[in-house]
Specification:
35% helix, Hypothetical Cytosolic Protein, Chain: A, alpha+beta, three-stranded antiparallel beta sheet, 5 strands, two-stranded antiparallel ribbon
């Protein structure tokens, strides 16, 4: 008789938040990347450069900025300016919204009735 093979559990990469120090799955955190001295949000987690992971909560991001944890984790030579922080905060919040709206890497499909679609087309 042939043996039944057990389904192996898929490996889930774990990362640590630089603020809360909690270990969470990689997709449960947002990645910030230092690319040539500029900090930007990396929602897909594949950008080249030194990265740091942070929980996807607004207050956690604010604490990271207040304690200068982003600069420390990314080994920046100088502190982030207020303008850079505002830009980074906006990118961070936008990336969180996109990730919540679009689970995983699957394309978003929006279903519309043919009648509604024709009305939309006619208006244009």
């Amino acid at each position: 008789m042939a043996k039944k093979k057990k389904m192996r559990e898929k490996h889930v990469p774990m990362r640590m938040c630089i603020v809360t120090r909690e270990r969470k799955p990689k997709l449960g955190l947002m990645r910030l990347v230092n690319v040539n001295g500029k900090v930007k949000v990396d929602p897909k987690g594949k950008e080249r450069g030194r990265g740091a992971n942070i929980c996807m909560e607004e207050d956690v991001f604010d604490e990271a900025v207040r304690k200068h944890l982003i600069e420390k984790a990314l080994k920046l030579e100088k502190k982030l300016t207020e303008e850079e922080v505002k830009k980074l905060r906006k990118e961070f919040l936008d990336a969180i919204e996109r990730r919540k709206f679009r689970k995983g890497s699957k394309p978003v499909v929006i279903k519309v009735d043919k009648e509604k679609w024709r009305k939309i087309i006619k208006k244009e």
